[in-house]
Amino acid sequence: MVARGDLGMEIPIEKIFLAQKVMVYKFLDGTDCVMLSGETAAGAYPELAVQTMAKICVEAESTLDYEDVFKRIMKHSPVPMSPLESLAATAVRTANSANAALILVLTRGGSTAKLVAKYRPGKPILSVVVPEIKTDSFDWSCSDERPARHSLIFRGLIPVLYAGSARASHEETTEEALGFAIKHAKSMGLCKEGDSVVALHRIGTASVIKILTAK
């Protein structure tokens, strides 16, 4: 977080802009979220303040060259990457090349979707959190909604909880979850019939990236 007030206590105020630019350059352009603080958070018009901030964010996003942002992030990413991060980056590259309307990620803990968000795709990421059901032969347990809630602070991530499935096989459950995700995305206006959608998910111990057509 770049806090101008705190910077002003440490360096001459006329140099604050330079310090901000240096920090933004070093960490690459791109912000996960913005914070209303001070007068904007405690003022008499909180709703208007949030609406104005949202308009500013939309305008700022519209000026970005997402393919260039992706190339710069790749240039500064450590090599070798972990297998999971490599897949996340590939999913974004595929979405850019295919001009996909959406990236779908089936996840349990949210880590995969957050790595996709790191590479700043120009399209939304629907993070479908699939509950994990465990049993120790005596009791059953199911993971909660925390991974979905935590995803809300990451740029471009739109989390949704999948209710789970009684399908017998992992493959059937995955296909059912993908169908649910596309239907949900269409209802939210994230894609429409005929659009290309990049999906990233696991099948057993393998991870798969594929291009789907919204139906």
Features:
215 residues; globular; 5-stranded mixed sheet; alpha/beta; Pyruvate Kinase, Chain: A, domain 1
Concise structural overview:
With 215 residues, this protein is α/β, with parallel strands linked by helices. The chain is built from nine helices and seven strands; from the N terminus they run ααααααβαβββαβαββ. α6 packs across α7.
Can you walk through the features of this model?
The chain is of the alpha/beta class. It folds into two domains: 56 residues, no CATH class; 134 residues, Pyruvate Kinase, Chain: A, domain 1. The chain contains nine helices and seven strands. It has a five-stranded mixed sheet, with helices on both faces. Strands 3-4 form a two-stranded antiparallel ribbon. A hairpin with a 4-residue loop joins strand 3 and strand 4. It is globular and about 60 Å long. The model has no long low-confidence stretch (mean pLDDT 85). InterPro entries: Pyr_Knase, Pyrv/PenolPyrv_kinase-like_dom, Pyrv_kinase-like_dom_sf, Pyrv_Knase_C, Pyrv_Knase_C_sf. It catalyses: pyruvate + ATP = phosphoenolpyruvate + ADP + H(+).
Oligomer: single chain
Residue windows where pLDDT falls under 50 for at least 5 positions? none
What is the rounded distance between the termini?
A: 41 Å
Q: Biggest sheet: strands side by side, in what order?
A: 5-2-1-6-7
Catalytic activity: pyruvate + ATP = phosphoenolpyruvate + ADP + H(+)
Pfam families: PK_C
Subunit structure: Homotetramer.
Protein name: Pyruvate kinase C-terminal domain-containing protein
